[in-house]
């Protein structure tokens, strides 16, 4: 296992997942909720890659493989946790935007 490569995989996939989630949020602001949901699925799939890599590192350590703690590894963990937190919040914001849209349609069915 190339530790540095695994670390960069976590950073890259975590950052990509976060960016894709923000694309989903923008689509929700544009009331493109179906596309927004598709983007969130893509974000979760990308996040899973980062999470799987993290799990692989944890399992290696549990199997007594030496995993050197480094600032880069801490940075990778930070990226992953930030992506997880922000994606969770973005999902809630998208639900709120959908609810607002439905309420606006009830109050003003013609959209004028």
From TrEMBL:
PROSITE patterns with a match to the protein in the record: PTS_EIIA_TYPE_3 (PS51095)
Co-factor note (free text): Binds 1 Mg(2+) ion per trimer.
Superkingdom of origin organism: Bacteria
Single annotated GO MF: transferase activity
Protein name: Phosphotransferase system cellobiose-specific component IIA
SUPFAM superfamilies named in the record: Enzyme IIa from lactose specific PTS, IIa-lac
Coiled coil: none
One GO biological process term: phosphoenolpyruvate-dependent sugar phosphotransferase system
Keyword Heme included in the entry's annotation: no
EC nos: 2.7.1.191
This protein's UniProt keywords: Magnesium, Metal-binding, Phosphotransferase system, Sugar transport, Transferase, Transport
Cofactor: Mg(2+)
Enzyme class: transferase
InterPro entries named among the record's database cross-references: PTS_IIA_lac/cel (IPR003188), PTS_IIA_lac/cel_sf (IPR036542)
């Amino acid at each position: 296992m190339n530790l540095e490569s695994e670390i960069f995989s976590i950073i890259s996939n975590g950052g990509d997942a976060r960016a894709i989630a923000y694309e989903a949020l923008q689509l929700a602001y544009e009331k493109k909720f179906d596309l927004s949901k598709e983007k969130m699925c893509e974000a979760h799939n990308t996040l899973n890659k980062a999470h799987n890599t993290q799990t692989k590192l944890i399992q290696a350590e549990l199997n007594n493989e030496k995993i050197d703690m480094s600032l880069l590894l801490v940075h990778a963990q930070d990226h992953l946790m930030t992506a997880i937190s922000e994606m969770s919040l973005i999902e809630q914001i998208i639900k709120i935007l959908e609810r607002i849209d439905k309420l606006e349609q009830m109050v003003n069915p013609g959209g004028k």
